[in-house]
Amino acid sequence: MADVNFHFDPICPWAWITSRWVTEVQQLRNYDVSWKFISLKMINESTDYSKMSPGHLEGHVFGLEVLRIASAARTTDGNPGVASVYTAFGTALHTNHRREEAMKDSPAFYAKVLTEAGLPVKWAESSTDTAHDEVIRFESKAALERTGKDVGTPIITFNPQTDREASVFGPVISKIPRGEEAVRLWDAVQIIAESGVSEIKRTLRDRPQYD
């Protein structure tokens, strides 16, 4: 059984930073992380995108298509397949700043990123396969049932399917904590999640740092 569930949409830069913090703690504490889906496109189905800043709809569609690729990877390679797809696309999009390339020709980008990562390029064909939407929608709904609505990605569940299960949206962080700093933040966030605190928030944030 996994120690942690991490629900992500690959288009979100903040989720990417948080996910790299999770992988840091995973290595330090030998945790088992189960990579789960949450689609910003699906949870914003009732949103009027014309009232949002340009690029939101395009980005959310892109995120859903990459989640379909990750779902295809899961069917053959299980949880490690999902992790490898997320790492490949997150690195390309965010760390290597290739979002403009991705939005210009998404199908070509999917194939290129998978090839660069040494992953099966055939997975790219799943980007438009709506057969994967059922599981993506199920996991998106499950994530929001744990935190409540009006949140996004990431969502973390500690000790899933145990009597200590606790979930939280975020944390939204601007840089990736490493080493002891990562562990201290982890313990603090887990305590907050398990305490039942509903919200701690400020709107000021630094620009995302991906290294």
Structure description:
By secondary structure, the protein is α+β, with helices and mostly antiparallel strands. It is 52% helix and 9% strand. Strands 2-1-3-4 form a 4-stranded mixed beta sheet, with helices on both faces. Helix 1 crosses helix 7. It is globular, with a radius of gyration of 16 Å. The model has no long low-confidence stretch (mean pLDDT 95).
Question: Topology of this protein?
Answer:
Layout: E1 4-8, H1 13-29, E2 33-37, H2 40-43, H3 56-95, H4 99-104, H5 106-116, H6 133-147, E3 155-158, E4 166-169, H7 179-195
Parallel strand pairs: 1-2
Antiparallel strand pairs: 1-3, 3-4
Helix pairs in contact: 1-7, 3-5
Shape: globular
Distance between the termini: 31 Å
Q: Into which percent range does the helicity of residues fall?
A: 40-55%
List the helices and strands in order. EHEHHHHHEEH
Spatial order of the strands forming the largest sheet: 2-1-3-4
Q: What is the overall number of helices?
A: 7
Largest sheet: 4 strands, mixed
Low-confidence stretches: none
| Extended strand count | 4
- Helix/strand-derived class? alpha+beta
Provide the β-strand percentage band.
5-15%
Q: Return the average pLDDT rounded to an integer.
A: 95
CA radius of gyration: 16 Å
